[in-house]
Design brief:
This protein is α/β, with parallel strands linked by helices. The chain has one domain (3-12, 22-206): Glycogen Phosphorylase B (Rossmann fold, 3-Layer(aba) Sandwich). The chain has helices at 25-36, 59-69, 84-96, 108-117, 131-138, 172-190, 193-206, and strands at 45-49, 74-79, 101-104, 120-122, 142-146, 164-166. The protein is globular, with a radius of gyration of 16 Å. The protein starts with 24 loop residues before the first helix and ends with a helix.
């Protein structure tokens, strides 16, 4: 991976950081919140869709999840790529929930900002051999994703894991609620900074 895609070398972000200086990562969240005109709230989880969205990426499942998503204390960053249909959906979401939903333009700088600022990355389709997942791990962005051998489901007893995994269902609706449960588990764990830092460090070690 080029050094420009490593948070300790990244020239596109507000604050560089490593596994040992993860407390600096939150400065990137604060900077992006300011840029978007949002309140600076370090304790509110920032969730991203780093691949954008299309039907193949789980768009139907996402639409099923939306009512539940907005019951959670979280912000949503969306990379503005994917199908036109979901571009329309997201544009309306941004209008309705502009205080916590933002679409960022497709550019290298935007991707760097998203990764540096986000706490969680939501994936709704198979992520086996996904370069985006590996980059998220490198930046300490914890994946919520379908079960895959490339990620270890977080075990709070053993304090081990590199993601919050779920079993994809036989329909988009089934997958949606499995994904929502995994996201809710991630958001609950995020409330405990020590546990969250442990997961992030394990992610960053795996993403090297």
């Amino acid at each position: 991976m080029p050094s420009t895609w490593s948070p300790d070398q990244d020239t596109h972000i507000t604050a560089k950081y490593t596994q040992k200086t993860l407390d600096q990562k939150v400065r990137n969240k604060s900077a992006l919140q300011k840029e978007l005109g949002w309140p600076v709230e370090s304790k509110r989880a920032m969730v991203c869709l780093p691949m954008g969205m299309s039907e193949a990426l789980g768009g139907k499942a996402l639409q099923t999840m939306l009512p539940g998503l907005f019951t959670q204390s979280m912000e949503l960053l969306i990379l503005g790529k994917g199908s036109k249909e979901y571009g329309t959906v997201f544009t309306q979401l941004q209008k309705d929930h502009g205080h916590r939903v933002a679409i960022l333009p497709v550019s290298e700088v935007s991707v760097h900002k998203i990764l540096a600022a986000s706490d969680i990355a939501l994936f709704l389709a198979d992520v086996t051999d996904s370069a985006e997942v590996q980059t998220c791990l490198t930046y300490g962005v914890v994946p919520v994703a379908p079960e895959t051998k490339s990620l270890e489901n977080y075990d709070p007893v053993q304090e081990r894991g590199t993601g919050f995994l779920y079993t994809a269902g036989n329909s988009p609706e089934e997958s949606a609620w499995s994904a929502f449960a995994a996201l809710a588990r991630a958001l609950e764990t995020f409330k405990f900074p020590f546990d969250w830092r442990t997961i992030q460090r394990q992610c960053m070690e795996t993403g090297k």
